[in-house]
Specification:
single chain, Creatine Amidinohydrolase, Chain A, domain 1, Creatine Amidinohydrolase, 3 domains, 6-stranded mixed beta sheet, 30 strands, globular
Length: 609
């Protein structure tokens, strides 16, 4: 174990002993169950050294283990090497889940500790059951990192902006009205939510508290008359105060939410989503309800706001389509620049970080650009086998050579949408295996893109279209095939998803016109190369007849596949047709946005195969 992390782990164990805690759990999470957390919440990284965006560390007196998913197996193995921390590869044969591990390891009467504000309600209740079986208990009030992490960053705090209806397509009163109608149908008098993108969408506001995610740290309680917004004072602008007064929004201190729940005058049941509040908030709300007469209770169901948010309205769809065209044009310009620059033997060599910086700069020149939607993944050769690789000058920053393949996964946050696109590019001669694996990835992507499916289908029904070409060749990728995408919000947005695995307690929602989802199969060979092709799709109506209603996908991403990596032997007549039709569409829609030189390049890249 590196000296610095060994010292931190030992300090944590000392704090555990002082607090009477037998095992301490540190997730990758903030107080809102966000996918990406601000620096203040990077305690797991502080203690373990693992920098991935998903993972949970459990420290016991004689053992430390870290769980992460298939996106990070290679990265985590490298960052934890020699550390003494055991890597638990989630979902792999013989690897216990976090809950199974605790059920096995926690002794009778022992204490499991964690910061209850950073654990989702559903997970906290599951841990509560484990400890009851062990006749043990939970200590959820201690953030042990706070007493050890001396230079811990402060909570982020930035002014909030109010979005105009030209961008949102629906005003706040309409959105609140839809929520309150669901509350009435469920027989509830109030609704609580701590999921940041839900709050931002519902109130038509945006923030800057999480890198690449336009959200502000906040909680809300909505009843049939008022909205209570809990937010840091430094976030509140004059514009927000005026807006809040107009729409009966009471602005209250961010840290007061749990106390408010314990004293709020409940006049009926409260609606919440167990995945949208923390375990600490659940305890505070349940405790407050328990003090009231009339047997008021918590009604836990999937958040209606999450569903509302995932189905984009007409204004949002129109904005998103234009946004993706402009973003795709930038990608085309970048690919042309990069391939020509790497091929130029008289030019200075390009490194991964420089290529990422060039693309980021080009994207920032789009008129309504606000930020990146995530840190650009710029990966050459073996580095592309790590799904969430990040080039760091002086640490890992490969020089791009005129051979092999380069992968770039990037996106932007715009007032007119959120983008996400991946393309894998040949920089020179490639092997037959590279062509085979690239073409299989392209076929997987195209088969899903070309799907026609019954209304009522979920991502679990459609995943096989993308994965079957891989499985037929004995290949698989350790992640889902697709995720939902927000509107100037999270680049990963639930509930839409495309994956074959079914997780207990998680119900997929059927696709609806207006949903936006990614299509991103890939091949990842450790130590060799990685391939990913990601095309963003809009769910649209296809046809309705006596057999029922059918839906399909329309591509929003309009960036050509690399013809130099296509091996026609792995194309069927159907997938060849899909590829040529897609390239024809790219040519027609993107050509007007390019210069003459870029148009010439695009024509060459979209010739029929």
């Amino acid at each position: 174990m590196s000296t610095i992390h060994a010292d931190r782990i030992e300090k944590l164990r000392a704090a555990m002993e002082k607090s009477g805690i037998d095992a301490y759990m540190i997730p990758t999470a903030d107080y809102h169950n966000s996918e990406y957390a601000a620096d203040h919440f990077h305690a797991r990284e502080y203690f373990s050294g693992f920098t991935g965006s998903a993972g949970t560390l459990v420290v016991r007196p004689d053992e430390a283990c870290l769980w992460t998913d298939g996106r990070y197996f290679i990265q985590a193995a490298g960052e934890l090497e020699g550390s003494g921390i055991i890597l638990m590869k989630t979902g792999e044969p013989g690897v216990p889940s976090l809950e199974e591990y605790l059920d096995q390891k926690m002794e009778e009467g022992s204490v499991l500790g964690f910061d209850g504000r950073c654990i989702p309600c559903r997970e906290g209740k599951a841990l509560e059951k484990i400890m009851k079986r062990r006749k043990g208990s939970l200590n959820t009030a201690s953030d042990l990192a706070d007493g050890i992490w001396a230079d811990r960053p402060a909570l982020p705090c930035h002014p909030v902006m109010v979005l105009e209806d030209d961008y949102t397509g629906e005003d706040i009163e309409s959105k609140l009205g839809r929520l309150r109608e669901v509350m009435r149908q469920e027989g509830t008098e109030s609704y609580i939510d701590s999921k940041l993108d839900n709050i931002m969408w519902l109130l038509n506001i945006r923030g800057e508290d999480v890198t690449c995610n336009p959200v502000a740290l906040a909680h809300i309680l909505v009843d049939h008359r008022n909205v209570y917004l809990f937010i840091q004072d430094g976030e509140v602008t004059g514009e927000l105060r005026s807006y809040a007064a107009l729409h009966r929004i009471s602005i209250l201190p961010y840290d007061d939410f749990e106390d408010f729940l314990s004293i709020y005058d409940h006049r009926g049941d409260m609606l919440c989503d167990q995945d949208c509040i923390s375990y600490s908030i659940y305890l505070a709300a349940a405790g407050g309800l328990g003090k009231r007469a009339g047997n008021c209770g918590l009604i836990t169901k999937k958040s209606p706001v999450g569903h509302f948010k995932s189905v984009k309205n007409g204004v949002e769809i129109a904005n998103i389509r234009g946004c993706y065209k402009r973003d795709s044009a930038v990608m085309c310009r970048f690919i042309r620049w990069l391939t020509e620059r790497v091929a130029d033997t008289d030019a200075e060599p390009v490194r991964e970080s420089e290529a990422a910086g060039r693309l980021d700069q080009m994207r920032s020149e789009i008129s309504d650009f606000m930020d990146l939607s995530f840190a650009t993944i710029s990966a050459y050769g073996p580095n592309a086998a790590m799904m969430h690789y990040e080039a760091v000058p002086g640490v890992s920053d490969a020089e791009l050579r005129p051979e092999g393949m380069y992968l770039v996964d990037s996106g932007g946050q715009y007032l007119t949408g959120t983008t996400d696109v991946t393309r894998t590019i040949a920089l020179g001669p490639v092997t037959d295996d590279m062509k085979k694996h690239y073409t299989l990835t392209a076929v997987s992507n195209l088969q899903l893109m070309g799907a026609v499916f019954m209304d009522g289908c979920t991502g679990a029904n459609l995943d096989i279209l993308a994965r079957e070409p891989m499985w037929r060749e004995g290949l698989d990728y350790k992640c889902g095939t697709g995720h939902g995408i927000g509107y100037y919000l999270g680049v990963h947005e639930s509930p839409p998803s495309i994956r074959w695995k079914v997780f207990p307690g998680r119900l997929d929602e059927p696709f609806e016109p207006g949903m936006i989802v990614s299509d991103e199969p890939g091949v990842y060979l450790e130590g060799k190369y990685g391939i990913r092709i990601e095309t963003i799709l809009e769910v649209v109506d296809h046809i309705e007849n006596e057999s029922g209603r059918f839906l399909s996908f329309e591509p929003l991403t309009l960036v050509p596949f690399d013809r130099n990596l296509i091996d026609p032997d792995y194309l069927t007549p159907y997938t060849r047709k899909l590829l040529n039709e897609y390239h024809e569409r790219v040519r027609i829609e993107i050509m007007p946005l390019l210069s003459a030189a870029d148009q010439e390049w695009l024509i060459s890249q979209t010739e029929p195969i």
